[in-house]
């Protein structure tokens, strides 16, 4: 096929991110400088984010049979790039430029995050099983290194090995599922598979088995029950900014490609597979929330709560008509904002030199009297995750409930209401801990280095955004309504 200027404009976000990776790599080879690496990464990500605007003008456009750039891809590309930018800012605050140096090399962290982000961009625009696999591996492999980045901490190393082994098992299921699907449909493109399955009416048992195995591989990455066992350990062991990346950019990319696959081939979400998805959704909502109840570690609590949140998202995937696409878009945006805020507070409370992150709940006891700004941000994030009105999380949950009611999935709606009720308890428990009075406490806000101030300003902006979208969600709704899938 011939490449025209339009193709390059459509691919600009991915090309700029890839160019940034090369520039950062050469800069590290030339001279190790933490701040320089950070600034180059941020500049590249901002350029990639801006390049989405011209890409929207030429969309929808099939760039090679593997990638389709449409409004759907552009929305999720923007979401991944924003999440990556936030994680890079948090990583800079976390690694710090202080005299007591981080014992390893700091610069490679940015390189790995950028590579994982490039994988995410490929994933959300994939319209072919080969594109899906390339994107998924490009996203996953750098994350193995990121999770184990604090190699001097045995928990981080253990988390990296766990994630790598289980992720490899997930990829094996995915590949086997693709092989079975290809054997049945005779095509690797999502469109071709959709047409082949639609032609036969009900998908054959071979196609259902293939789709089922692919679902297992993707459920591993999204940590849906019963493939969730790695989540709390990996979240706890990974450095805080990496856990933020894993919870936001990584999961958004995988969920977006899952939506594309299931929406373009409607037969995929009918029959047995629809029932399987329903069971996984209910199990994820209930298990995620019930297991979060017993946690005294903030990262593990957020890990279990993310299992529940992707269970909520599956409700829209099962409904797969009417408001479904819109609900998924709104929920993912609000989920990313709140998760970045919550992990951001843990990041600014932590330092890699102490051996482990400040993620135990007792370390947040009476935080309001020491760090009032961070407490304000974490309070808003907990309210938003619980889906309390006037926060962004409420709008997301409202849309998911509306989708469930519209498609009359009463069991799913019931489990969402029950899960949300359980969730309110443990989110409020975290909030109460923040405001407890400790004896002999003097109120002061800790002195911050400039890189931590940048992280703090970003967190305050996230908290304001979570409130703003809760009060006036119209701009977000307009944005999401304009995104559609082109099959």
UniProtKB/TrEMBL annotation:
It is a multi-pass membrane protein. Pfam families: Proton_antipo_M (PF00361). It comes from the Bacteria. GO terms for molecular function: NADH dehydrogenase (quinone) (non-electrogenic) activity; NADH dehydrogenase (ubiquinone) activity; quinone binding. Residues 126-422 form the NADH:quinone oxidoreductase/Mrp antiporter transmembrane domain. One of its GO terms (biological process) is ATP synthesis coupled electron transport. It catalyses: a quinone + NADH + 5 H(+)(in) = a quinol + NAD(+) + 4 H(+)(out). InterPro entries: NADH-Q_OxRdtase_suN/2 (IPR010096), ND/Mrp_TM (IPR001750). Its EC number is 7.1.1.-. It is found in: Cell membrane; Endomembrane system; Membrane. Belongs to the complex I subunit 2 family. NDH-1 shuttles electrons from NADH, via FMN and iron-sulfur (Fe-S) centers, to quinones in the respiratory chain. The immediate electron acceptor for the enzyme in this species is believed to be ubiquinone. Couples the redox reaction to proton translocation (for every two electrons transferred, four hydrogen ions are translocated across the cytoplasmic membrane), and thus conserves the redox energy in a proton gradient. NDH-1 is composed of 13 different subunits. Subunits NuoA, H, J, K, L, M, N constitute the membrane sector of the complex. This is NADH-quinone oxidoreductase subunit N. It comes from Pseudomonas lini.
């Amino acid at each position: 096929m011939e490449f025209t200027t339009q193709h390059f404009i459509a691919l600009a976000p991915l090309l700029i991110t890839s160019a940034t990776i090369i520039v950062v790599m050469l800069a590290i080879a030339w001279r190790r400088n933490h701040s320089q690496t950070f600034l180059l990464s941020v500049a590249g990500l901002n350029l990639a984010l801006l390049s989405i605007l011209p890409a929207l003008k030429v969309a929808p456009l099939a760039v090679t049979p593997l990638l389709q750039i449409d409004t759907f891809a552009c929305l999720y590309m923007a979401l991944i790039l924003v999440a990556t930018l936030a994680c890079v800012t948090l990583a800079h605050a976390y690694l710090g430029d202080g005299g007591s140096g981080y014992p390893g090399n700091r610069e490679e962290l940015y390189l790995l995050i950028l590579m994982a982000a490039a994988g995410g961009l490929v994933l959300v625009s994939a319209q072919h099983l080969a594109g899906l696999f390339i994107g998924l591996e490009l996203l996953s492999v750098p994350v193995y290194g990121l999770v184990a980045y604090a190699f001097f901490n045995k928990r981080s190393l253990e988390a990296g090995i766990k994630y790598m082994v289980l992720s490899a098992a997930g990829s094996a299921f995915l590949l086997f599922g693709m092989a079975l699907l290809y054997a049945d449909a005779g095509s690797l493109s999502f469109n071709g598979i959709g047409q082949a399955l639609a032609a036969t009416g009900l998908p054959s048992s071979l196609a259902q088995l293939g789709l089922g195995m692919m679902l297992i591989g993707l459920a591993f990455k999204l940590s849906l029950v019963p493939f969730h066992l790695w989540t709390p350990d990996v979240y706890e062991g990974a450095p805080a900014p990496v856990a933020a990346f894993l919870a936001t950019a990584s999961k958004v990319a995988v969920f977006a490609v899952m939506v594309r696959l299931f929406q373009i081939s409607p037969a995929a979400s009918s029959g047995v597979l629809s029932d399987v998805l329903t069971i996984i959704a209910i199990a994820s909502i209930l298990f995620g929330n019930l297991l979060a109840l017993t946690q005294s570690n903030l990262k593990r609590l957020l890990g279990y709560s993310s299992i529940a949140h992707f269970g909520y998202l599956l409700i829209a995937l099962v409904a797969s008509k009417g408001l479904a696409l819109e609900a998924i878009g709104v929920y993912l945006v609000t989920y990313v904002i709140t998760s970045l805020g919550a992990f951001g507070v843990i990041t600014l409370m932590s330092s890699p030199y102490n051996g482990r992150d400040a993620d135990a709940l007792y370390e947040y006891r009476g935080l309001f009297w020491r760090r009032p700004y961070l407490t304000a941000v974490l309070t808003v994030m907990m309210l938003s995750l619980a889906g309390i009105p006037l926060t962004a999380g409420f709008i997301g949950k409202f849309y998911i409930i509306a989708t469930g009611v519209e498609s009359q999935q009463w069991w799913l709606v019931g489990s969402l209401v029950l899960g949300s009720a359980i969730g309110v308890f443990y989110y409020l428990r975290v909030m109460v801990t923040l405001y407890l009075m400790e004896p002999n406490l003097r109120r002061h806000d800790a002195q911050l280095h400039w890189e931590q101030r940048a992280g703090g300003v970003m967190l305050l902006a996230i908290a304001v955004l979570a409130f703003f979208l809760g009060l006036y969600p119209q701009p977000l709704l307009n944005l999401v309504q304009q995104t559609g899938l082109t099959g």
